[in-house]
Amino acid sequence: xxxxxxxxxxxxxxxxxxxxxxxxxxxxxxxxxxxxxxxxxxxxxxxxxxxxxxxxxxxxxxxxxxxxxxxxxxxxxxxxxxxxxxxxxxxxxxxxxxxxxxxxxxxxxxxxxxxxxxxxxxxxxxxxxxxxxxxxxxxxxxxxxxxxxxxxxxxxxxxxxxxxxxxxxxxxxxxxxxxxxxxxxxxxxxxxxxxxxxxxxxxxxxxxxxxxxxxxxxxxxxxxxxx
Length: 227
Hints:
Oligomer: single chain
Structural class: mainly alpha
Number of strands: 0
Number of helices: 10
Order of helices and strands: HHHHHHHHHH
Distance between the termini: 60 Å
Radius of gyration: 23 Å
């Protein structure tokens, strides 16, 4: 058998990887739409039986029993309640983002403040955050930290790309949360200890810094004019 060229193998592998990514994206989109449609039907059925105050609880409980019997544990009472909340929060399908999966939407549903939720939607889509990255940013209160030195309208405008950041403080968090470094609490750290910890956790550190940052070298000399 003749040896295959690297370029040929790379091209074929890229075709397969691209197809797998598109298939996974399509599955995620269909899953999101499935839960949205279920939520819509639940709410419409509730409204049809609104003369009974407890009809919503009765409906979801009985629907969960049937669906779990037919399709498994993915349709529990809690899951159906999330579907209902999902439709109420996002009543228009045009507001749904193809970049976000169901796990990410479940994280977003925990956020009651609409502006805060919109901010995380925009940032997750702009930066291609995974579910774990989105959860970490929410838990580390990224939105609140940015608001400490900025007004809400400016933060949202930059996230939506309706405006450009005019100063570093508009995109740099204060304070920064570096819990991922695993450093033990102490009064002071040597620079080399912080550097080593940051290099070992570079992906998480760049995520914490935000847009416009990349890793160039461990240490790099930068000349500014004659200095």
